[in-house]
Amino acid sequence: MSLIPYICTTCGVQYEPAAAPPAHCIICEDDRQYVNPRGQQWTTLPDLRLDHLNRVEAVAEDLYAIHTEPGFGINQRAHLLRTPGGNILWDCITLLDDETIEAIRELGGLRAIALSHPHYFSTIVEWSRAFGDVPVYVNALDGQWLTRASDSIKLWRGERLELWETVTLVRCGGHFPGACVLHSPQHGGLLLVGDTIQVSPNLKTVSFMYSYPNLMPLAKNQILQIRDSLRGLSYHAMYGAFGKYITINAMDAMEASVERYLEIYK
User: Fold this and answer.
1) Mean of the per-residue pLDDT values for the chain?
2) Strand 167-171 and strand 198-199: pairing?
3) 181, 206 in Cβ contact below 8 A?
4) Span 228-246, mean pLDDT?
5) Which H or E run contains 56?
6) Cα separation of 266 and 76, whole Å?
7) Does 1 reside within a domain?
8) Where does the pLDDT of residue 266 fall: very low under 50, low under 70, confident under 90, or very high at 90 and above?
9) Domain assignment of residue 238, yes or no
């Protein structure tokens, strides 16, 4: 009997190989996400490869977005940041195929993978194996939502983790207890934020939510925690998970957005 690592079609997260699809998806049954109204549904990587492909596109100097067409799962983007110390994949998407692997190898491969929060765990074990079992960094506070085990997954603790000189992970909390952003001082300083900090459509402000699909707001103290976690960091650009980017004055946008929230909470 063959064992298959099934993938939830709603969130795009892959589970341990099994003879039959799981009965539940722990990611979707959490109140930050949702179960497909038509019922839990599953797919596999081979099936996904039949009618989906990935695009790898430069979005800034040394920064590339990777996204799937047509959209799948939550439809987030991963980002590959090239640094003098090696390349890092920030967040992850479900689809991985030979064309994507080759494109990333042409950019220099991967030294590491880091995740902002569980909604983007996707097929992290597959991605790690494809690039020589590179380490996958997940904040330990979110470890309970991991759906596959691997020695490549590194649970880190604390508020900040410097992976190498130009790459630091920062735990912000809020959306998830271990929700993180990535800071690099390159090119004037940048943040890769997933949707721990959500870049708004106007590309001038940001937002914060406990649950985006269920429209559940974040508490005031957690918004302040996110703000305080970034103290001391310099950045001019901020790159979100859905193709929305603030490319100038991102620090000002962050501060003004927090102040806007504080006015609402008065």
Assistant:
1) 97
2) unpaired
3) no
4) 98
5) strand 53-60
6) 33
7) no
8) confident
9) yes
3-class DSSP assignment, residue 114: strand
Percent of the chain whose pLDDT exceeds 70: 100
Tell me: the pLDDT tens digits for 72-92? 999 999 999 999 999 999 999
The CA distance from 35 to 37, in Å, is 6
Q: Which two tokens stand for residue 260?
A: 């806007």
How many domains is the chain partitioned into structurally?
1
- What would the pLDDT profile of 127-148 be if each residue is shown by its tens digit? 999 999 999 999 999 999 999 9
- Tell me the residue range of the domain where 155 lies: 7-264
Domain assignment present for 2:
no
Q: Rounded CA gap, 144 and 158, in Å?
A: 16
CATH of the domain at 162: 3.60.15.10
Answer for the pair 115, 124: CB distance below 8 angstroms, yes or no.
yes
Q: How far is CA 68 from CA 36, 49, 72, 78, 222, in A?
A: 20, 10, 7, 10, 32
Q: For residue 252, is it within any domain?
A: yes
